[in-house]
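Quick question: what would this complex look like in 3D?
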Amino acid sequence: MHEVEWLEFDDWAAMVWQVVNDVEIAVECAVDARGCALLAVPGGKTPVPIFRALAARSLNWPKVMLLPTDERLVAEDDPLSNAGLIRAHFGTTGATIMPLCERVDIDPGAAGRAADRRLRVLQWPFDLVWLGMGEDGHTASILPGPDFEAALSAPLSRRACGVVPDPPPKEAPVARVTLTRAALVATRTLMLTISGDKKRAVARQAIEDGPRSATAIGRVLAECSAPIKVVWCK
Ligand SMILES: O=C1O[C@H](COP(=O)(O)O)[C@@H](O)[C@H](O)[C@H]1O
């Protein structure tokens, strides 16, 4: 694991400002160096105020491609949809938004394989993988259940897979497609945004446990050789 830079904020405005600036720098560096920027961004609730502020920035959006780190297998107009969340915020910026799933009415395994095929056209690595984390230590949709180890130990050539969480997470009890750990760590820089005391304790323990961590976030960060920044807000 690369050394972790850990930042803490007492208020959301300061945290949002920090993360927006970091994303802006990642985009500018990528566009200057390679003419485009490839970013994976989290779903769920935590990134919402950050998305709002980021979308208002005048970045070179037409050069930016945004993917969700994971998807809940629901229609894009469902409030649980991560692609829907991203489109709602960045849809008018000029960025290209690439949902992981074209179809959500198929079984999770097939949806995962279809996402994997779609992702093969992209020029990797990511310029930025921005992760969220649940209080149980899941990140992207690498959730406890029968697909947990497969998502973590998939080879480099496998970028996405289907996940049936067991137990179903209470905030979004649906099947998922997630970027694999191999895909998530194929990045020039990685950022994790979290809030609340519980998540701080879980993330700290996961980092301390490293590859022996029982949590997805611990196992992902342990494999990451890019610079890692954790941004926490009370
Ligand atoms: O299910 C998911 O959960 C995590 C954490 O979400 P939050 O609402 O607690 O911020 C999120 O990062 C992931 O993308 C999402 O699908």
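Answer marked as accepted. Helices lie at 12-34, 48-55, 82-90, 108-119, 148-153, 181-184, 197-209, 216-222.
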